[in-house]
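Figure caption, in words: inputs first, then the predicted bound structure.
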Amino acid sequence: MSITIKSASEIEKMRMAGKLAADVLEMLEPYVVAGITTDELDKICHDYIVDIQQAIPAPLNYHGFPKSICTSINQTVCHGIPSDKKLKQGDIVNIDITVIKDDYHGDTSKMFCIGEVSQHAKRLVKITEEAMYLGIEQVKAGATLGDVGHAIQQHAESNRYSVVRDFCGHGIGKNFHEEPQVLHYGKPNTGITLEAGMIITIEPMINIGKKDVKVLADGWTAVTKDRSLSAQFEHTILVTPTGYEILTLRTEEQSRFE
Ligand code: MF3
Ligand code: CO
Ligand code: CO
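Bound structure (cobalt (II) ion present):
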């Protein structure tokens, strides 16, 4: 399957799916506190997506994934499986939400800090969010995926962090993961040229230590090999003739664009 250019009606459906995914993260905020288990967060999201949004949690049974959301704590890079483990003060956790509405996917994640977290954790979270935004700001018809990857890599590495290579962003639409692969490193003016109507995710994973990851015996949980902290943010992005539209923007982010 090649890269699809979405039609106007497909873009409308992607806007709705994106908004629902963003709404889940906003709804969840007050629950993400010390003492709650990631299984409890999974159930809150599952029930909200199914009962209130009348949508489908895309991760559930996706290639055998057992839960409705991914919860990746501290040294977990991505694809953490919700469990009966409680969040505790000082943890940083990525919560990744993907919903299917009217056959189309919206995919987004953010970091939550549990109570007071260390200065070095806070700095990692801030730089990772900035790196995602710097990547997003490269997006417009005529720019390349290398431009996006380079902006992210530059920001991470100039802050002495490393960019995970084993996972990447992706095209998205009727399928959860479509072409192209969106690498979070690269060189300007290389790779695929973006065209208006493409929809991709940008979802850098940044480590304090080395870039290497390993997947645990559960077949999903990816952790840093050196057990250093890792952070990730993700948005679903429409390429427009002059720039981009963030389909998963949350209210708390709107002031960035005023
Ligand atoms: N939401 C992840 C992504 O951003 C994919 C999760 S796949 C799952 O692409 F099976 F773990 F849910
Ligand atoms: Co994604
Ligand atoms: Co995701």
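Residues 96, 98, 107, 109, 234 surround cobalt (II) ion (ligand 3) (CB under 6 Å).
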